[in-house]
Design a protein that fits this description.
The protein contains five helices and ten strands. With 207 residues, it is of the alpha+beta class. It has a single domain, classed as Alpha-L RNA-binding motif (Alpha-Beta Plaits, 2-Layer Sandwich), CATH 3.30.70. Strands 2, 4, 7, 8, 9 and 10 form a six-stranded mixed sheet that branches.
């Protein structure tokens, strides 16, 4: 399904309103229709902006099943950044991981008898369209399955995690998570920090 609450005319994909009956919420960030995992839904525009502004660099953590077994040079390229549609991606955190405990995918991934697969843990601070799929394809290892399992609030505490939430299910945030999100809204924004930094530089240039 698509990560929005309004269906697209003529699309074969369903949308979030088929699963979530809470009114007036929308996703803070998106997953493409072929991907799975954690979405944070909110009715607060400032929170949505705070979590998706690329200048704030919230790490998003993914389990990624790829075709083939990437060698260290390919993993290093992913870590340093690769060129996607003429623009270099930001450095990423990339590790090889054991297969995570996930339910079977519906529909299943494509299977090739003589083609091995491997699992990577990839964390990004940006969210360009189909970015991980394009990154792994650029190093010769197309993505077969992509699951976002955590979002880091960058507050010194553990990330928000998918946990044992089943596909297609949702839950309210806990009181502790609510307090963390409230504190996130009270922190200075990237734009205000940038403006203050610019003012300090200008003042410094006059001394």
């Amino acid at each position: 399904m698509i990560s929005q609450f309004s269906p697209e005319p003529g699309s074969r994909w369903s949308c979030l309103s088929d699963l979530v009956s809470v009114p007036d919420v929308y996703p803070a960030g998106r997953l493409d229709a072929d991907s799975e995992g954690l979405l944070l839904l909110t009715d607060r525009g400032r929170l949505q902006h705070r979590l998706t502004d690329p200048r704030l660099g919230h790490w998003r953590h993914y389990w990624v099943q790829v075709e083939g077994c990437p060698e260290p040079p390919a993993l290093d390229r992913l870590r340093r950044g690769v060129t996607v549609r003429g623009e270099r991606t930001l450095p990423a955190r990339v590790t090889r991981i054991p297969p995570p405990p996930l339910p079977a995918r519906d529909p299943p991934i494509r299977f090739r008898r003589h083609q091995p697969t491997d699992w990577l843990g990839i964390a990004l601070r940006q969210g360009r369209n189909r970015q991980i799929r394009r990154m792994t394809a650029a190093v010769g290892h197309p993505t077969l399955r992509l699951v976002r399992h955590a979002i880091d609030l960058m507050d010194g505490e553990p990330p928000l995690v998918l946990g044992d939430l089943a596909p297609g299910c949702w839950r309210p945030v806990t009181p502790a998570e609510t307090r963390r999100l409230e504190r996130l809204l009270q922190a200075p924004s990237a734009l205000s920090r940038s403006s203050r930094s610019g003012r300090r530089r200008r003042r410094g240039g006059l001394r």
